[in-house]
Write a structure and sequence with these properties.
Domain Urease accessory protein UreH-like transmembrane: 11-214
Order of helices and strands: HHHHHHHHHHH
Number of strands: 0
Keywords: Membrane, Transmembrane, Transmembrane helix
Transmembrane segments: 12-37, 57-75, 81-99, 135-156, 168-188, 200-217
Structural class: mainly alpha
Protein name: Urease accessory protein UreH-like transmembrane domain-containing protein
Helix content: over 70%
Number of helices: 11
Number of domains: 1
Distance between the termini: 21 Å
Pfam family, one: DsbD_2
Shape: globular
């Protein structure tokens, strides 16, 4: 488990600082969830938001488990090295995206649009959300919304070569996205404003880039571990 600490922290950072992208993808849904509930029913609003986000995060973990099986299948083959190199490059790309230096990562979202066309009608039928099970199910469906940040994190998680570890990384990533979306639903502008600050995003992006470089196979890994 100690060797999982760095990847789990990286997954949390990816989710937390990627929250700005999450707002663009899911912010409208969060608004629809909250506007349907009177402001005086704040406790009910919080429960629905928690249930929705729990369903979304569980979808990420399930996707991590599935793709982790693929990573485990090639773990002892030459393809494992290629997967690790690709994962490291994607981490660097994610760091560039989080820092606001390059947004090419969003092009990966085209991969999941075909699947989403089949899921979108189900999500529409669950609106408006009127109960906790309905919010949980809607979150589980919305977790499959095409998202370049999620897809890149999935590929990186698959390079661990263990379905369980891949699921844990995606769970940590999902937990990282939770504060921004929850704060948005509860109209907590201060938190979202803090996470959108240029300095915070650049610092997080640099950390992720550094971890991406460390993920790439090579002698530089020992030097980075020493520093």
């Amino acid at each position: 488990m100690p060797e999982l600490v760095a990847p789990l922290l990286s997954a949390l950072i990816l989710g937390l600082l990627g929250g700005g992208h999450c707002l663009g993808m899911c912010g409208g849904l969060m608004g629809a969830l909250t506007l349907a509930i009177p402001p005086e029913q704040r406790a009910r609003r919080l429960r629905l938001l928690l249930a929705y986000n729990l369903g979304r995060i569980l979808s990420y973990a399930a996707a991590g488990l599935l793709i982790g099986l693929a990573g485990w299948a090639v773990a002892s083959s030459p393809a494992a090295m290629l997967l690790r190199v690709l994962a490291g490059l994607l981490l660097i790309a994610m760091g560039l995206y989080l820092a606001g230096w390059w947004s090419g990562l969003t092009h990966i979202e085209a991969v999941g649009r075909h699947l989403w066309r089949h899921l979108q009608p189900l999500a529409s039928r669950l609106m408006p959300v009127s109960s906790l099970p309905r919010a949980l199910l809607l979150g589980a469906v919305w977790g499959w919304l095409p998202c370049g940040l999620v897809y890149s994190t999935l590929l990186w998680a698959s390079s661990q070569g263990s379905p369980g570890e891949s699921a844990l990384l995606m769970l940590a990533f999902g937990l990282g996205t939770w504060p921004v979306l929850l704060a948005t639903g509860m109209a907590a502008e201060r938190l979202t404003a803090l996470l959108r600050r240029r300095g915070v995003r650049v610092a997080g992006g640099l950390l992720v880039i550094l971890f991406g470089i460390w993920t790439l196979p090579g002698p530089h890994q020992h030097w980075l571990m020493g520093h």
